[in-house]
Design goal:
elongated, 2 domains, single chain, four-stranded antiparallel sheet
Length: 223
């Protein structure tokens, strides 16, 4: 029997509270959405179209992504996954807003059938994360401060002030642990790093055009 993870119970409750019109909007929005490189980015795309808050959409997409993964591994039909979700929710004391489990199972099965963009996003995310280290944007920053420079004689007032930039680069290990290291940089080195990053953006733009010209779908966080 399917078990709902603790961190997904709120999203399942949100799903159970959806009104018929919201279900229709959600399914249409997911069907129309282009895959992204993360579920948060996909939630950004789906939220406005579905007229449901981004936080709720993100939680719901996580539930759909988990169900889709289980479905793909076991080759289960969508209606069977919908039944499993319903029974798991009911065992947790949850119920649809209208109390109609039959309608919920039908809508959930339709939602799972329409989850292609979610499945591709989950696969793209896993592929991107298949590295020993992945960037952590939340904890990466540059600290800029002034360092006084004193002469070799008597200490009076500083002979001058040097400006130092410290790059704190944070990353996730493959096992989930967060790490960080620090690099001191001057203004010239900051500009050099900026040039390298801008060149990377130019390369991505060029490769994106090449992919599109070849008729392949580009998985991107952009609409």
């Amino acid at each position: 029997m399917l078990t709902i993870p603790e961190d997904q119970k709120r999203a399942v409750k949100d799903l159970l509270k959806l009104k018929p019109a919201e279900w229709t909007n959600l399914i249409k929005a997911i069907t129309r959405a282009s895959p992204a490189t993360s579920l948060k980015s996909l939630a950004n795309k789906v939220s406005d179209d579905a007229a449901i808050s981004q936080s709720k959409i993100y939680g719901i997409l996580r539930v759909i992504g988990a169900l889709s993964t289980i479905q793909a591994e076991g080759e289960y039909p969508s209606n069977e996954m919908a039944i499993e979700l319903s029974e798991a929710a009911e065992s947790e004391g949850m119920k649809p807003a209208d109390g109609d489990w039959s309608a919920f199972k039908t809508r959930a099965a339709t939602l799972i059938d329409a989850s292609g963009p979610v499945q591709i996003t989950v696969k793209a995310r896993d592929l991107i994360r298949e590295h020993q280290h992945t960037f952590c944007r939340a904890n990466t920053r540059v600290v800029t401060d002034m360092r006084p420079v004193f002469s070799a004689g008597e200490l009076d007032v500083p002979a001058g002030v040097a400006i130092v930039h410290t790059l704190k680069l944070a990353y996730h290990l493959n096992g989930g642990e967060d790490k960080e290291f620090f690099v001191a940089m001057d203004a010239d080195e900051i500009h050099h790093l900026m040039d390298l990053l801008l060149r990377a953006i130019d390369k991505e733009t060029l490769l994106s055009k090449t992919v599109q010209k070849a008729g392949m779908n580009l998985i991107s966080d952009k609409d």
